[in-house]
Amino acid sequence: FNFNAFFEEAKLIGSLVSMSARERIKAIQKMPETMKKKREIRNKVLQEITEKSRRRGNQCDCCAQCVRRMAVSYRRFRNSLSEYFHLLQLWQKTLKAIGGKFGTGVLSYFIFLKWLLTFNIFSFLINFSFITIPQFVAAKPNNLSFTGLEIFTGAGYFQETVLYYGFYTNTTIRKTENSASYNMQLAYIFTVGIYFVICLLSLVFSMAKSFRRNFINPQTYSGQASKLLCTWDFNITNEKAVKLKQKNLSTQIKEALFEVNREVLNFSFKERFVHFVVHLAAWVASLGTAVAACAGVYFLSINNLQLFMKGHKNDLEGQAAMLVLPIVASLLNAFIPFFYSWLGLLEHFQNPRHQIYVTVTRNIILKISIVGILCYYWLNIVSASESQCWETLVGQDIYRLVLVDFIFCLLGCLFGEFLRRIIGTTVCVNLGMPEFDIARNVLDLIYAQTLTWIGIFFSPLLPGIQMITFSIVFYVKKVSLMMNCQPPRKVWRAAQMTTLFIFLLFFPSLVGVLSVIAVTVWRLKPSKECGPFRGLSSIYAAISVWIEILKNYPGSKWVVWIYQNLFQGALFFFILSTILL
């Protein structure tokens, strides 16, 4: 056996394997060997290439299999985790039932209500954790007696509790002499401020996401075949769940078909002129009603304050007379929207979405105007009154407004939708069962949330009260919807309505609230005898005092730099003015 020839051949084959296919063919052709020998060399080279490829393939297959297994395991874990959290979501089955029977328009109201509930839960948790719990350490005993009327008035016994601004101390809290200190002034400002920043960012992000999904990439006319053929979940085996899924899918397809097949009517010049006159008259009537309502609320609030300051400061029965203002405001908010809905029927809108847009606009003008008049009354009249603690007085007013609005919401379900169903099914059969008024109910939620946001500063635990009321409203509205209302006669897609709801919650609701809070913090003088900011020229002065203290600590120079260059600079006030104005 010739070892030299063997090693030479192995070396030759190795060099040929490393060449490209074209270079390998040319090299074999140039060899001074017989054709048989060249074929043997070629076959050995191909065999070596095949074995190397197999070895690399086995290594790659092992790596690829490991990656695939990890990816599959991750997907399974993510899906199982998603299903687990999906099961934990609040009211998930109820929302599916509502969407399947009444469509996405009515469903959008309940989703919006659930969304607002999360805002209040978050606000209550942070306020209770960073403001209320520390106050318990420095709390003084409450010597007032509880009679039960305080639940409706918010005064009396509640006035000396953590429910209101005036009860909180302005001192630095220490559990023991050697324990760490807790500055209630800074805790109050930063807790409320950070919450509003989070709300602002959340609303902007949600609004942008909804706008992109429903307006920029709506995909209104695509995907119906895939929805019909590929949407069904074959894991569903329960008969009740199958029927609910069928109804939900049927409703979605009807909504999509209505958008595609909606007729565009061509009106004559005379008909268009008549429609214009009707729309103009409806707008004049709606705006005139809103102006009259605001004037009534303003003069009633002035009269109530005068009665309170004359001799009922500490009289609980006298303070009960203060319920007149929230009752009148709730009556206006309850009955004028019915007038707006009637105007919408007279205008004969071709598209139900357009009717809802117009009705929502009129309702938001009414409700925000009433809230604006009340804010003017609180910030310019109550704050300048002789009250010992005007912040607590404002908190009590907002508490009564929230409570009475909640009571009227429950009464509206009972005497509005229930009696309407009785009349429509027994007395006047032609009327039939009522439809769920999406615009009016959504604006009621925005009105209630606006009051809660304003009241957070004057009553830190108000979100907890609103959290309870929203939970009750959800179940009452759900029962009333199932028992008293019929599905919409015109089925239509309401995905874009969600964007409108979020936008209205952002502007004018949240932007207006931020304006009120900014005026309270920067311009108004706190009460001298109550609250964490007593004795200061303004609430914002607490930040200035804190910054002066930090200047003495070298490790806190970066905080001072941020304050001086960002919050005291012209850029900050320009951005703030741009947002608020």
Automatic annotation (TrEMBL):
- Cellular component per GO, a single term: plasma membrane
Tell me where in or outside the cell this protein is found: Membrane
The way this protein sits in the membrane is described as: Multi-pass membrane protein
> What positions does the domain TMC occupy?
389-495
Q: Tell me where on the tree of life, at the top rank, the source sits.
A: Eukaryota
Query: Where is it mainly found?
Result: membrane
Kindly give the Pfam families that the UniProt entry links to this protein.
TMC
Q: Which residues cross the membrane?
A: 106-133, 186-205, 276-300, 320-343, 364-379, 399-419, 450-476, 496-521, 561-580
- Which keywords belong to this entry? Membrane, Transmembrane, Transmembrane helix
A single MF term (Gene Ontology): mechanosensitive monoatomic ion channel activity
* Protein family according to the UniProt entry: Belongs to the TMC family.
Protein name as annotated: Transmembrane channel-like protein
Gene source species: Nothoprocta pentlandii
Q: Which gene encodes it?
A: Tmc5
